[in-house]
Design brief:
The structure is a homodimer. With about 150 residues, the first copy, chain A, is α+β, with helices and mostly antiparallel strands. Helices cover about 40% and strands about 20% of the residues of chain A. Chain A contains six helices and five strands, in the order H-H-H-H-E-E-E-E-H-E-H. The interface between A and B is large, with 42 and 42 residues. Strand 5 of chain A pairs antiparallel with strand 5 of chain B. Chain A binds a DNA duplex (30 and 30 nucleotides) through helix 4.
Chain lengths: ~150, ~150
DNA sequence: TTCTAATTGAAAATCGTTTTCATCTGGCAG
DNA sequence: CTGCCAGATGAAAACGATTTTCAATTAGAA
């Protein structure tokens, strides 16, 4: 299941939020992109179509969308503040290109077994995980030649 | 293999860095803690033993240690800026208590298979991953009663 | 011991984010 | 269709975290 513009607007309304042209533009910008975007990057993109829009509005809209779980946060590359439309609504993770920022979603992280093991070994009550793969997409990989293994 | 104070100092020297009392104190504070600490938190701890130390020095020392791979960065809880001594020098991950900040290291993330699958399906050249489990340690879990599943 | 490059701390600059407040507007009630 | 008002907006100011600058200090090699 994927979020469409219609579904997103429904979701906003359902929570008592209004649909403004500014919000539409921000949502559009995020939906259109297959990269993770920082608030500043979104602002830049959005300004061309909606010159007067303030960075504050971006922040507020992002906060709202994130609160409703409609966008995902990305941690790659240091910034904890990059966002991405939540494309599959279900549990999923990201594979991120360090070259161009392109993001591929994937499901099936299969960490349940590991989670069980850890819970047993540590007596923790585990309630979530953060998983991202970093790499280079085909294009960036070719462009770069093919050195550099960052492996963590 | 675990980093000892001696080994860390060797490592600094090897890279042309000097061993100053301030640095020793910072390293000590990080080593002693089993929580992930923000720069400000480290500063607070360190000041009691070394009153005049500036927050700047903390930042600089953290930058240096991170650059050498001697400390780990944690992403849990929003802050991208919490650090932790790299306890096993090998590839490992963290299980973090959202209550008290306690961190348990674990090895054997077993993501090689998934990584292979993704590489094949997406033509990405994958060179790393970010994995953290979030939860509550036994103590915090009991204290909190036992509601709230944050599951992502 | 001497000397130099590296390190330190204070202050200022900078960056990203949030708050405040006066103004404006989406969308419901009439 | 019109008026109304809670919610939304934008500018400016406030804020907190991080970085830069610079003069003074110091670790450690010679």
């Amino acid at each position: 299941m994927v979020y469409t513009e219609k579904r997103i607007e429904q979701e906003l309304r359902r929570h008592g939020h209004k649909i403004t042209p500014q919000r539409r533009t921000v949502i559009d910008a995020i939906m259109r992109s297959h990269e993770h975007l920082t608030p500043a990057a979104i602002h830049k993109r959005v300004k061309s179509e909606h010159p007067g829009i303030g960075l504050v509005t971006i922040y507020r809209t992002l906060g709202m969308l994130a609160g409703l779980g409609l966008i995902c946060e990305t941690h790659a590359g240091g910034s904890c503040r990059s966002y991405l439309m939540r494309r599959p609504a279900e549990h999923h993770h990201h594979l991120i290109c360090s070259g161009c920022g392109k993001v591929v979603d994937f499901m099936g992280c299969d960490l349940a077994g590991l989670e069980r093991r850890l819970a047993k070994e540590t007596s923790f009550k585990i309630n979530g995980h953060l998983l991202e793969f970093l790499g280079q997409c085909r294009k960036c990989s070719l462009a770069a030649g093919g050195q550099k293994a960052l492996s963590e």
